[in-house]
């Protein structure tokens, strides 16, 4: 009975130590996105460039990889993007779900640096009009590959800069096109 109690206590202590390394953070920031595309053929070439600016707000969860200063980071973010085309504004709302491998390294007694990278899935929710995500509009689902670098200050405050490169089409049109996004954000880590 004593052995079972000792093993149970050791198991509970190790599980609580493991759980303490997992963390959650709330984040918000500024987005600069763009739809970029091009097409060429016999005697012609065309370029597409539409800029979207906006903001994001969301939550990230870091799953600790025991024995390493590394994490699997996933999250759920709401992205609000506005484009101005020919003096008209068009907005789109997305849910962005990143899955990144995150590596953390010390930069002093109160500051840790980090880099992360991996894919994200973007799901269009709604836009300014009912045609935003219909045929001839933006694709409702698109994927990106991203990299982020940042600082964790005093184990709680986060400053980060990231870039996501579009790997799937932004619109089903007769040219290659993608959505790229630059993100500048702050957060609080619990």
Protein model, in words:
The protein is mostly beta strands. The protein has one helix and eight strands, in the order αββββββββ. It has one helix at 2-21; strands at residues 23-41, 44-65, 70-85, 88-106, 111-127, 141-153, 157-166, 176-189. A hairpin with a 4-residue loop joins β2 and β3 (70-85). The longest helix has 20 residues, at 2-21. It starts with a helix and ends with a strand. Mean pLDDT is 85; it is low at 7-19.
Number of strands: 8
Spans with pLDDT under 50 lasting ≥5 residues? 7-19
> Strand fraction band?
over 45%
Number of helices: 1
Q: Give the assembly state of these chains.
A: single chain
- Output the helix-strand order: HEEEEEEEE
Helix content: 10-25%
Principal-axis shape:
elongated
Biggest sheet, strands in spatial order?
Answer: 1-2-3-4-5-6-7-8
Question: What class do helices, strands and sheet pairing give?
Answer: mainly beta
* Radius of gyration over all CA atoms, rounded: 21 Å
Q: What is the rounded distance between the termini? A: 38 Å
Task: Describe the sheet with the most strands.
Answer: 8 strands, antiparallel, barrel
Average the pLDDT over all residues and give the rounded result: 85
Which tags fit this structure?
8-stranded antiparallel barrel, 1 helix
Précis, in short:
The chain is mostly beta strands and 190 residues long. It has one helix spanning 2-21, and strands at 23-41, 44-65, 70-85, 88-106, 111-127, 141-153, 157-166, 176-189.
